Amino acid sequence: MAMVKGLLRKDSLHKLSWRLLQSMSTESATTKAEEIAAKKRKLEGRRFYEKASVRAAEEGGGYEVLLDHRVLRTPAKKALRLPTPALALALAAEWEWQDRSGVRSFTMPLVRLASITIDQIPTDKEKIIATLLKYCHTDALCCRAEPGSQLAGKQTKYWDPLLDWAEKEVGARPVVSSSIFGASQPQHVLDALEKTLRNLNHWELAAIDSLASSSRSLVIALAIARNHLNVDKALDIIRLEEEHQIEEWGLVEGGHDIDIADLRVRISAASIFLRLLSYSLDEKL
Questions:
Q1: Fewer CB near the terminus (10 Å): N or C of the chain?
Q2: 103 phi and psi, to 5 degrees?
Q3: What does the pLDDT average to over 2-17?
Q4: Where is the signal peptide (predicted)?
């Protein structure tokens, strides 16, 4: 009970929210990408609450976010109960930092992931796993440039170590191909990856699905989830081909830079979402 009271202190919320936002590289929120996005999107209603706070759920365990005295719910009107106080505080921080002039849902990626976990994963789990396995045949790490090219050399140098890691981590090494149709993965690779996915809880699966979609790679998603890659290294791996093209043809301002900022936000959000599932409030970010 003492811990919960501590969570409700406004200074505690502000202090932790600032640290959480820093750890997510939220300076990206003020980049040109966010400025342009803010101009294009209409405000989704004026801020209707004074403060966001956290409390232990009265029923069912877990933690709830309060907007004033109203319990936060998902878009499907389900109770939004979080498994850890740290994750609850992070969601409260996203609401607390909304501007007085209006609420912008696109600036709350953690709220979105939590809502997906509760609204979609329980009913769509089989479909999500099947889709992730289907995309393994076109995993970004497995689709290579023509052998002998400069890009193929970079892919071998920076991508092969991740496939080696996958072999040790999940028990099977995905195959690679330079075919335009992707790399058809053997059944034993798919079986090993399916076993890994089925061992995830709903919260982890939601984050993995987001990471795989953003990176176009289930292997990269798993490497981030298991702390084999941090966000910066993951971005280097994901953007290897794009950076190769930029070296040859140059950076397109208002194009490449916006893509980079958007990708960083999405990868950072899913990464910290996973970390907060086991994060202790006594731990330093």
A1: N
A2: -100, 130
A3: 46
A4: none
Which domains are assigned to the chain? 2-119 (3.30.2180.10), 122-250 (1.10.3580.10)
Cα–Cα distance measured from residue 257 to residue 252, given in angstroms and rounded to the nearest whole number: 7
Nearest partner of 83 among 99, 100, 68, 63, judged by Cα: 63
Q: What is the DSSP letter of 107?
A: G
Q: Write out pLDDT tens, residues 213-266.
A: 999 999 999 999 999 999 999 999 999 998 898 877 776 665 567 888 899 999
183 touches 176 (CB < 8 A): yes
Give the DSSP H or E segment for 66: strand 63-67
Task: Find out whether 234 and 215 touch, Cβ atoms under 8 Å.
Answer: yes
Helix (H, G, I), strand (E, B) or coil at 52: strand
Cβ-Cβ contacts under 8 Å for 225 (sequence gap 6 or more): 204, 207, 208, 211, 274
